[in-house]
Amino acid sequence: MEPRPFADLSIFLRTSLGRTLVLADPHIGFEISRGLRVRTHYEEELVSFIRDSDPDALIILGDVKEPLGMGTELRRMLSGFFSAIGDRKIYITKGNHDGRIEGVAERFGVKVVPYLLLDDLLFLHGHTLLPALEFREAFLGHIHPAYRVKGTGKLTKVYLRVGRFLILPTVNPYLEGFDIKLGIEMIPFLKKAEVGDVFLPEGIYIGRVSFKKRGKSGELRPHRA
After folding, report:
1. Distant-in-sequence, close-in-space partners of 128: CB < 8 Å, separation ≥ 6
2. Residue 141 domain boundaries
3. Is the Cβ–Cβ distance between 59 and 89 less than 8 Å?
4. d(CA 125, CA 115)
5. Does residue 176 lie within any of the structural domains?
6. 92 lies in a domain?
7. Which helix (H) or strand (E) holds 80?
8. 179-191 burial: b if 16+ Cβ within 10 Å, else e
9. What's 196's domain CATH number?
10. What is the number of domains present in the chain?
């Protein structure tokens, strides 16, 4: 898989924290979990992107790490990542892979929270029930949304909008993602959703997909207002 620029796999928002960079599912240390003999060091390139972008704040929508445990090598990788990001406000909305991450992250002033309500925007990972509060728009990750391009059979990372919810692709260029029609069922508060709008990382709208109807009727179709 050809890595996409990190800029395509993350978004910038204007919030009360200032210029805010939002990204999802870095899965640092995925090489450890998957038994790879060669380290990609991709998180070092991600650090360079963050530093070059110079946001006032950074929000990571969970699954900062991949291994469920916290071994010595992973602790070293995470420490290097957090220490290199620089002096800025950093929040992690804790994901299902992020057990014990507080022990490393909070040493560098990183705040680990179950969700973040900022202004009228909600940020969360997406693997738990929706918190009972008011918000205008929500941003989440968790399912690594991807769509199988017709005629090629290739899964392509996408952004998926379901009503007020925008689901970001994994920022990790070495992870492909999951088919959105299966992934949506992994989000407790969206598993009954019927349709979603799909966007390529470049921002191009490619159509609407049905989750409830499988097969031919579940393919992307042009949006009609």
Report:
1. 114, 188
2. 6-218
3. no
4. 7
5. yes
6. yes
7. helix 72-85
8. ebbebbeebebbe
9. 3.60.21.10
10. 1
